[in-house]
Amino acid sequence: MKQYKCLTNDSSLASAIYVPFYPGFAVSRYLWGFNISVRDAVSLDLVKWLAQRPEWKRMWGRDHFLVGGRIAWDFRRLTDNDTAWGSKLIPRSAYEQYLWHLPKNYTKYSVFIPQDDFKNKKIVISERLLRIPKKEVLAMREEVIKLIPRIVYADPRYRLENFEDAFDIAVKGVLEIVEAIRRDIKEGKDLTIGFEELNGIVL
Fold first, then answer.
1. Are 1 and 29 contained in the same domain?
2. 116 and 173, same structural domain?
């Protein structure tokens, strides 16, 4: 992370604030055998600490971002039942989390299989995939190949010459959102509208 030239140690100069907290590490210690209070404690402590920082108060955290560091399932607890899996950081699918990395026409490169259909044994994954025509499989494969630079991280010392990697795309997306919020603040718009959706995006 520190290899990137876009960084500054002066928060007053920063376009956005990166929070070096890894929810994946925090939740992984407590995924098995702990109640939801324990699983959520570290994240809640972080929020309390951030809320006291002058950087946070500048835009009330709307210019802050962090890296999740685990699969989305570990952050998508849908209830407050102690038997439910994970934390409640982001109850969203990959299509909704990686808005900048994955094209909206997801049927061109992926097959969506509803979780409930699989859990309730209404569908057999291998059978579903085998029903896809070979021509369509080849077309999807080409789309996936095109996506590869967008979902991998290049060593910042050896940049991809003709492509943006996952970091480039994520930072660009964050900065665009922060700038849009700044414009809304200047125009006196209600920032609570739509913020819940934006708040679910995790890098």
1. yes
2. no
Nearest Cα to 85, choosing from 74, 99, 98?
Answer: 74
- Mean pLDDT by groups of 10 residues along the chain of 203 residues: 79 88 80 82 88 89 81 68 69 69 87 86 91 95 90 76 82 89 85 53 40
- The vertex-153 CA angle with 149 and 155, nearest 5°, equals 115
- Number of domain units in the chain: 2
Report CA 196 to chain centroid distance, whole Å. 14
Global model pTM greater than 0.85: no
